[in-house]
Amino acid sequence: MKVKKYIAPSMPEAMQKIRKDLGIHAVILQSKEVKSGGFLGLFKKKNIEVIAGVDPNPIQTSEKKIEKKNVPTKVETVPPTNENDKILTEIQQLKKMIDLQQGEQLDDNRQEFQLALHHLLDQEVEETVAKEIINAVIKKRKKDEVLSYERVMSTVGDYIEEKLKPFHLSSLTQNKVIQFVGPTGVGKTTTIAKIAATLMLKKSKKVAFITTDTYRIAAIEQLKTYARILDVPLEVAYSLGDFQAAVEKLQDYDVILVDTAGRNFREQKYVQSLRETIASGIEMDTYLVLALTAKSKDIQETFDQFDSIPKKAVIFTKVDETTQYGSLINIPFTRNIDIAFLTNGQDVPDDLLACDAEIVRNFITGDARE
């Protein structure tokens, strides 16, 4: 296989160089953003680095669907001894991607579809979801129609928006009691403060707080600070009885927002304690708060740990701290649940985004269309 590295200001420009040099049958092996130039570390320009290859003697395949072999996620490699070995090592490490591309034979190996697929996988979109999207785009193409990469990505965005239509994005329950659960460090308490301020300022709601996070003094103090700033009451519940009494005490308020302990929810005893609260007879809705900075696999596993708890929707935090947004479609597509809000900073209440299909589309496809 002939392998070369290309650097260009954008992916379309890199594609033009690759097509001109290697031809239409070239395969993208790797792409990443790099920075170059500048002065004293400042004013560096963003470029796209692409490693592409072409097989001078491609293996001919029949139209019959090729069964995809299981490929280990980690590939054992040997230390490179020269520049050629280094390139071959990179190819080995990308074997899973190459197998996916060759195994599916997307539309006779059309480069635009392969590149779009690679972009989705690079965004940590689940493989099955990414293939579903690309196959839908291929079916939408008219017979013998030649699509540019930009057109392919635009159609990808259209499909994502259409698929998200049945979901009630950017919605908050009408129930009085709303409980927020999730792992430690995802920003539940700050998110609760943002939602409280939004409800008070934009909807003139009377809001109250309850915290059951009695494991960390700092967590109680943080919510007390927000309660003091927003001038809302706060009740601390050390037991299920305390919680029931607090809800009864705050019945005159429109919305009661409940902060829970952030714990390692791989341990089922913590999930069980949440189930006991839900089973207390108090009508409430539960929102699962997840950090978008976590790996897609970890997000899916965390979601599944809460499988036994009825959830109204998901809230994703730390959107501003990552460049990979695949979980924004992985969760609704594969778990059939709404996304209520996104947070993109620490400011209360400004950094709370109303999630909608267009925002999700732009996060997933935006980099590709720059």
Task: Write a short abstract of this structure.
This protein is 42% helix and 18% strand.
What's the arrangement of secondary structure elements?
Blueprint lengths: L1 E7 L2 H12 L4 E10 L8 E10 L28 H11 L1 H10 L6 H12 L4 H14 L8 H16 L12 E5 L6 H16 L3 E5 L5 H14 L3 E3 L3 H10 L5 E5 L8 H11 L5 E8 L4 H10 L7 E5 L9 H9 L2 E6 L8 E3 L2 H9 L5
Parallel strand pairs: 4-7, 4-8, 5-6, 5-7, 8-9, 9-10
Antiparallel strand pairs: 1-3, 2-3, 10-11
Order of helices and strands: EHEEHHHHHEHEHEHEHEHEHEEH
Query: Globular, elongated, flat, extended or rod-shaped: what is the shape?
Result: elongated
Q: List the total number of helices.
A: 13
Q: What top-tier CATH class of the domain at 177-354 fits best?
A: Alpha Beta
Main structural class: alpha/beta
Measured as a percent range, the helix fraction is 40-55%
Architecture (CATH level 2) name of the domain at 177-354:
3-Layer(aba) Sandwich
What is the CA-based Rg, rounded?
25 Å
CATH topology of the domain at 177-354, which one? Rossmann fold
Distance between the termini: 31 Å
Q: How many beta-strand runs?
A: 11
Strand order of the largest sheet: 6-5-7-4-8-9-10-11
Query: Which spans have pLDDT < 50 for at least 5 consecutive residues?
Result: 61-78, 100-109
Query: At the fourth CATH level, what is the homologous superfamily of the domain at 177-354?
Result: P-loop containing nucleotide triphosphate hydrolases
What is the residue-averaged pLDDT? Answer: 79
Largest sheet: 8 strands, mixed
Strand content: 15-25%
